[in-house]
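Researcher: I'd like a structural prediction for the single chain below. Treat it as a standalone chain; there are no partners to consider.
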Amino acid sequence: MLLPLVDVPHWFLINMFLRVGFSWCLQADKTPTVYLIKNLALPAVLSCRDLGITITHDLSPSMQITDIVAKAHKRGNAILRCFMSRDVDMLTRAYLVYVPPLLK
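Model: Treating it as a single chain, here is the predicted structure.
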């Protein structure tokens, strides 16, 4: 017969489950894992792009943000190069049409 969880002493839960999980974390190997497909090693990379999103090895969004900002900066400079007029209202409208969709 299984005992309900309320009847299990608190110290038993702490000693059996948390200690096992903690010791497992301490024994984690720090060397990079080599993955093989048909005995060919896959290259180890720090980031990759999938479906337009850059994923880094540590799952930080910094590279994705850097890519988006670089694209927006390039597009803003392209607007300045392409328009002959220096009318501020027209350049502002062009900027608002072409650059903010990249940032969303």
